[in-house]
Fold this protein.
Amino acid sequence: MRAHEEALLQPLLDYVSAKNSVRLLGPDQAANRAPTVALASQMPGEELAVKLAPMGIMAGGGDFYAVRALTAQGVDPTHGVLRVSFTHYTTEAEVSKLIAALDQVL
């Protein structure tokens, strides 16, 4: 299962790492992280999640009870981050859909 998650996660990590409009929190290599991704941008995380919802993307926005971790990474917890998660049943098509949706809202 882990290899599947890494293979799906890496294209997203590569995509967001190349964007100036969003900052990836944590390692940029799928093999070095859990399949949960936090993204910081100028737009509050919750607002990003709301904009993605009509595009069929289920994501969360907020501080996710990680106030100290966000603060340590220079993120205002009240602004929050966008969080997306990958599991063993995530598909390549869903990752492509997420990247296309992020392109529209970022």
Observations:
- The chain has a mean pLDDT of 94.
- The first helix runs from residue 2 to 17.
- Helices lie at 2-17, 45-52, 67-72, 92-105.
